[in-house]
Amino acid sequence: MTTELFREGKFIYSVLTPAHRDAAMVVLARAFCTEPVVNALGNIRPDMKTEFVDWVEFVDYWMDHCSTNGLSVVATNEADGRVAGVFIVRDLLMVPPGFDTKYNSDEKTLTPWMNFLWYMDKEATKKMPELGEEGKAVDFWFLGVHPEFRGNKIANYLTKAVIPLVKAAGYKYATIEATSAFTSKSAAWNGFTAVHEVQAKDWEWKGAPLYTNAEPPHGTWTFWVKNLQE
Q1: Whole-angstrom Cα distance, residue 171 to residue 140?
Q2: Where are the domains of the chain?
Q3: Can you give the pTM of this predicted structure?
């Protein structure tokens, strides 16, 4: 059963359930096809070019958890029920079965990207050890808006919908790993504080820089935290 949270304009914002699992996954995968750092890498390393299907496989690992945890939100078009946007949220320490093995293998073009995120998590946790305690931190993981529905402030309303859910679940901190300037701008606007920052061009994969050609203002990766109890 879908739990409607509120309506804004022509969109209904509800808790994500398995009923919208696959449609939400496709919207997220399509949105991340334009991830600036990953896209830029494909221009200089054709062997590392990431396609839509790669993002679908990546996001699919998380959907069973995120469509049942009561923390993720979907925006649907009131007129026809289509998924207009989605925000999946996970416990920061949660990793789906098999995911860490798959994305530590050379067969996946997104392996370096995920390892960069794990590196960011590790460095941020050094500065804020509480993030490594079970049940303390929730991760605002993936947010995507269908291209047809952009320009309706759906991302802002998805965030508005998610925050009360994670507060009610008892989490103390919300985190965001921002791999683009767009995400960092949203994090700052929503009252998050930057805890750790890395230039993508300086991070090394297998002993050498990999993400060296992201166009400004992208290329700065930032781990953001919001204290939900303040």
Answers
A1: 12
A2: 4-227
A3: 0.94
